[in-house]
Amino acid sequence: MKALVKDKAEPGLTLRDVPEPAIGAGEVLIKVLRSGICGTDLHILAYDGWAQGAVRPPLIPGHEFVGEIVEVGRHAGEAPDQGGLAVGDLVSGEGHLVCGKCRNCRAGRRHLCRSTVGLGVGRDGAFAEYVALPASNVWVHRGPVDLDTAAIFDPFGNAVHTALSFPLVGEDVLITGAGPIGVMAAAVARHAGARNVVITDVSEPRLALARKVGVSLALNVAETSVAEGQRQLGMREGFDVGLEMSGSPAAMGEMVANMTHGGKMAVLGLPTEQFPVDFARIVTSMLTIKGIYGREMFETWYAMSVLLEGGLDLSPVITGRYSYRSFEDAFAEAASGNGGKVILDWTA
């Protein structure tokens, strides 16, 4: 089969022929139809400091995908939380593979497993014509779904997990970072009944994407402060809910400074280094801060499917579509920081 491979401990990926993965008991083989490019994949491509510590070449990256089951291993068709799996099912995959044995896994809190292995990071992933996955990590699309949208269920899940961490109906929501996940979170917040949804960034193309999903205000914070945005909307007491998606120290500082007393913050953005935080403000404003990593398995996935069934439209977030043979152009667009999600088509 064709696959994009991190062959060596150096920058770059190679498109080449590799053996199809073999599946064991409890696993399924999936023919990949579409896969999405993530920031993690850009780190692996560049082989930066993080990738050097996390990846052991040779490796097939990729963890965002949609495909069709073509082979079901022994016992894999019995996955109880999926109602069974069968050849021909259209599926996406949860990219965090958990141990199933630790306290959190046994209590049903699989997203908190301390021994998580990442698909496309700790084991071969979905930048290939076929991928093997444990049945327990498979999500079947039971209803109609656009293939490009299904390919980005993994990052969509990050957005949903973050956005729905706290009640949103009638609330004023601040989202810092208008990357693809931030824009998806904005769409979810609006769909879930937030009153005002404000998103910030310094990239005008990405702010333009946010406007397409119906935010109340898309602020270029290089020109306009969050406090000024509040004034434009007639807000007087600050934001009820904050969703930090950028990993930027400045963005985190702006969020803390503009929250209402008793406000709640969900933080998904990963900073590249430690930075100071105004803890006096956090304490005196009685703010709640929740860290988010990945998706709740599989409650978040259920919520994603229901949101799409309810009319949530993610199509504005997908800005690039390429054949896998044009992967270099696809990665270049994804790395530009000016667009949304970029999709690789493994059937073209």
Automatic annotation (TrEMBL):
Cofactor info, note text: Binds 2 Zn(2+) ions per subunit.
Primary location recorded for the protein, binned into one broad class: cytoplasm
Keyword Membrane: no
Catalysis: reaction(s): 2-deoxy-scyllo-inosamine + NAD(+) = 3-amino-2,3-dideoxy-scyllo-inosose + NADH + H(+); 2-deoxy-scyllo-inosamine + NADP(+) = 3-amino-2,3-dideoxy-scyllo-inosose + NADPH + H(+); L-threonine + NAD(+) = (2S)-2-amino-3-oxobutanoate + NADH + H(+)
Signal peptide: none
Pathways per UniProt: Metabolic intermediate biosynthesis; 2-deoxystreptamine biosynthesis; 2-deoxystreptamine from D-glucose 6-phosphate: step 3/4; Amino-acid degradation; L-threonine degradation via oxydo-reductase pathway; glycine from L-threonine: step 1/2
Binding sites annotated in the UniProt record for Zn(2+) 2: 99, 102, 105, 113
Active site: 40, 43
Membrane-traversing stretches: none
Chain ranges of the Alcohol dehydrogenase-like N-terminal domain: 24-139
Binding locations of NAD(+): 181, 201, 206, 268-270, 292-293
Site feature location: Important for catalytic activity for the proton relay mechanism but does not participate directly in the coordination of zinc atom: 154
Subcellular location: Cytoplasm
Domain of life: Bacteria
Key words, A-Z: Cytoplasm, Metal-binding, NAD, Oxidoreductase, Zinc
Domain named Alcohol dehydrogenase-like C-terminal: residues: 180-306
Cited SUPFAM superfamilies: GroES-like, NAD(P)-binding Rossmann-fold domains
Entry-linked Pfam families: ADH_N, ADH_zinc_N
PROSITE patterns: ADH_ZINC
Co-factor(s): Zn(2+)
Subunit structure: Homotetramer.
Protein name: L-threonine 3-dehydrogenase
Organism encoding this protein: Streptomyces iconiensis
